[in-house]
């Protein structure tokens, strides 16, 4: 299989990329950045002049210094056959997140291979076999963590990263799982996903990577074997075993495992959460509507108990809120959402490099496809309306993104007006709080003081939520002045639509209730008059305002679309605006409208994000030919940007083969009227499924 092209970023000062990596080692928190490869080149006619170039890479076998040196040798071979300059030195840096060391291999060409490691203080240490085992496991986990989902969002974050599949057959799988088994109970040292507060034996980057691997490849038997062995050492592992059994449709066995394990460890929150998730999935099965309420009641019991077992974890409270949403118990859903412990999103470790002197991003002939190659040129000339760029919900990540998704699901089911009514039933509203307080005449000016509730509108004096630096005041002011003319270039104003979405009134937050000059007894006495209403957390108050902006822009868009259709006129937008509107509709759970916007985007230019959005719809509708056509284009785009591996695209191909059979899928790929070199890239994904002996590959 052809390897992706090699991007090159040229250093201003020799070795500055290595120095920059060494400087940030102490600041790394999790799995570490992608591997760094730095090469020294010189022209044969001028040996005195050396140039430093570098790129990043994931998925290279990091089990020994020899395997990393072999990677540098492949670059040397490629370079010597394609260029006038010659590689004379190379350094491969690979981070070991267990021991917090940067493993380095220095290759001199021709000549020696020297391996060593650098600690957080920048001092050299000896590289042992145990350290290489840790480094290998971290390397595989990083390959899955930094892989793109097909939409291109991850690829665009870091320039010039080559992405390889770290596990391509059953032999490499055996080595990966053996390393995982040896280091399993140290996995908590790697940290965890942004929605997990405290990493433990079953909630960390190692377990996330293992579950993603089994989900992607369908190698459930290997996962069951691994977790069965580990379960004998610690009963906590039962939750992971059950998850893999559920993935492999071994539901009866999974329920037995959970039943036995919960008896031994009744307050294991991950086990309880796994049960609640399974029961919810069964309850929402449309073929068994009569059992829905009974199963949801069982899910509620498990979810409620998991919040008692882990009150500081976001995931347990979010699951409880989701169960209440499924039960259509809206007041309890909102109360539970308000109880969720929120924490700041910690992004993945990314390389911090000085600006390169030159950037060379080559294209392989095998990845040339006209519609994809035209994407970068047309993208930068597009106009985007300011109101679309200022939608804060698009920036949410981690706990805030999950909480916002629950809120939008409620809105999609009951409507905005009904949600506002429930909000005023559950939470103390600012108006009733002000009228109840009745401040003395001398303190009438107090109502104009800044408070937590009004800060949500004026601009937060505290740290911005989730890394968003726009204050809500700027947001609403900008929105009010621009959203009404969302499509001014189309000649229609959206003021009618603007009035269709009622602006939420303000709630009272705990900070505001505690502020003021009254003593605590007086405050408690006043609050007791509000029929035991809750105080709305400041972040949830902010989420309502952000949701209001999303709904307002969405309503304007849909109203104007209807007006244009009624007048049989064309509704014009730039491709990027359609892409933003598509993701807006997606966030608000309006799938049909999202697909409509994504299609409009693709009619103007290629967009991996829009095509990924449509692909999800094709998969839901079981449209095999359209799914294959979309995957071929997405795989080609990934290769174009140096990525031969996307777990989500591999999963899509695997499930297609499972449903339709390998022969039919290969035939559909081959029957597509695209160049053969492009089709070969997707055939490579199908060949991976055959190597893993996935279901459906026999025929």
TrEMBL record:
Residues 433-525 are annotated as: Disordered. Residues 467-477, 500-517 have a biased composition (Basic and acidic residues). InterPro entries: ChAPs, TPR-like_helical_dom_sf. It comes from the Eukaryota. Gene3D superfamilies: Tetratricopeptide repeat domain. Residues 444-454 have a biased composition (Polar residues). One of its GO terms (biological process) is Golgi to plasma membrane transport. GO terms for cellular component: exomer complex. Pfam families: ChAPs (PF09295). This is Chaps-domain-containing protein. It comes from Hyaloscypha bicolor E.
């Amino acid at each position: 299989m052809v390897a992706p092209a090699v991007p090159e970023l040229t250093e201003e000062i020799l070795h500055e990329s290595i120095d920059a990596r060494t400087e940030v080692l102490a600041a790394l928190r999790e799995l570490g950045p992608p591997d760094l490869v730095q090469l020294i080149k010189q022209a044969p006619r001028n040996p005195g002049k050396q140039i430093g170039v570098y790129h990043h890479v994931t998925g290279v076998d990091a089990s020994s210094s020899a395997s990393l040196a072999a990677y540098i040798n492949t670059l040397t071979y490629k370079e010597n056959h394609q260029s006038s300059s010659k590689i004379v030195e190379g350094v491969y840096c690979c981070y070991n997140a267990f021991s917090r060391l940067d493993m380095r291999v220095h290759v001199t060409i021709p000549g020696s291979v020297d391996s060593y490691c650098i600690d957080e203080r920048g001092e050299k240490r000896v590289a042992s076999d145990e350290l290489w085992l840790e480094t290998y496991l971290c390397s595989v986990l990083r390959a899955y963590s930094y892989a793109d989902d097909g939409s291109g969002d991850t690829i665009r974050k870091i320039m010039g990263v080559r992405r390889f599949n770290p596990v391509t057959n059953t032999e490499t799988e055996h080595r990966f799982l053996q390393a995982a088994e040896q280091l399993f109970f140290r996995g908590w040292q790697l940290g965890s996903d942004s929605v997990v507060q405290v990493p433990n034996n079953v909630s960390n980057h190692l377990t996330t990577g293992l579950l993603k691997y089994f989900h992607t490849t369908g190698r459930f038997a290997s996962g069951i074997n691994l977790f069965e062995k580990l379960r004998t050492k610690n009963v906590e592992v039962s939750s992971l075993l059950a998850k893999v059994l559920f993935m492999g449709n071994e539901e009866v066995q999974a329920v037995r495992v959970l039943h036995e394990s919960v008896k031994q460890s009744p307050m294991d929150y991950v086990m309880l959460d796994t049960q609640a998730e399974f029961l919810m999935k069964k309850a929402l099965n449309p073929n068994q509507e009569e059992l829905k309420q009974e199963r949801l009641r069982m899910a509620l019991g498990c979810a409620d108990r998991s919040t008692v077992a882990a009150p500081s974890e976001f995931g347990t409270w979010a699951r409880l809120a989701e169960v209440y949403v499924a039960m259509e118990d809206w007041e309890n859903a909102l109360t539970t959402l308000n109880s969720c412990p929120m924490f700041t999103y910690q992004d993945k470790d990314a390389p911090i490099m000085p600006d390169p002197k030159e950037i060379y991003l080559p294209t392989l002939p095998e990845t040339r496809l006209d519609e994809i190659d035209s994407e970068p040129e047309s993208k930068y000339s597009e106009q985007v309306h300011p109101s679309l760029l200022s939608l804060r919900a698009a920036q949410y990540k981690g706990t805030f993104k999950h909480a916002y998704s629950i809120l939008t699901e409620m809105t999609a089911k009951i409507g905005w007006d009904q949600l506002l009514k429930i909000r005023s039933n559950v939470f103390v509203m600012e108006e009733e709080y002000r009228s109840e307080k009745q401040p003395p005449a001398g303190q009438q000016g107090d109502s104009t003081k800044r408070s937590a509730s009004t800060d949500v509108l004026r601009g937060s004096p505290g740290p911005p939520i989730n890394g968003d630096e726009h204050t809500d005041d700027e947001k609403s002011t900008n929105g009010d002045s621009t959203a009404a003319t969302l499509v001014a270039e189309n000649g229609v104003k959206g003021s009618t639509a603007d009035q269709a979405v009622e602006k939420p009134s303000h709630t009272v937050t705990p900070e505001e209730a505690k502020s003021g000059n009254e003593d605590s007894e007086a405050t408690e006495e006043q609050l007791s008059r509000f029929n035991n209403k809750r105080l709305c957390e400041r972040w949830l108050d902010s989420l309502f305002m952000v949701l209001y902006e999303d709904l307002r822009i969405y309503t304007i868009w849909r109203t104007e679309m209807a007006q244009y259709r009624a007048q049989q006129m064309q509704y014009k937008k730039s491709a990027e605006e359609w892409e933003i509107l598509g993701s807006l509709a997606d966030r608000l759970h309006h799938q049909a409208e999202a697909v409509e916007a994504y299609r409009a985007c693709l009619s103007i230019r290629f967009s991996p994000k829009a095509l990924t959005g449509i692909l999800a719809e094709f998969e839901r509708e079981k449209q095999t030919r359209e799914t294959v056509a979309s995957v071929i284009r997405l795989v080609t785009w990934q290769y174009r940007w140096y990525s031969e591996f996307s777990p989500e695209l591999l999963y899509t191909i695997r499930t297609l083969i499972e449903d339709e059979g390998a022969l039919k899928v290969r035939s559909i790929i081959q029957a597509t009227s695209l160049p053969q070199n492009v089709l070969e890239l997707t055939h490579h994904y199908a060949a991976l499924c055959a190597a893993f002996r996935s279901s459906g590959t026999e025929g």
